[in-house]
Amino acid sequence: MGTIKILIDEFNDLKPVLQEHIEFNEELLPHVYFGECNEFFINYINEDKPQVLQRLFSVFEIMATQGNDDVVNILCVTILERLGDDRKVLNTARKYMGKETRELSDETEKGWGRY
Question: Which domain holds residue 11?
């Protein structure tokens, strides 16, 4: 999956997570892999380092704008739903979201009745 390559090129600490994931599952399960990355994403957001978050949310915006339906589904269901579980995390994340990512996040939050 191209998105995963972009992600691990930007964030080397996610490469071992991918390797362990494939070894354990004997295949790539994208929703599961991104779910395993969520705690890294949340840590990045809690650290609130603008350069790191700009890179992260650039990847998310690529997923939102260039990804097929499966990639957009991963972004919404696996990543954005998790970010919305914590209002503080979501508020920080929203500062870095691109237009399409923010729209998907808003739709996700409305769907959960949290917006």
Answer: 2-111
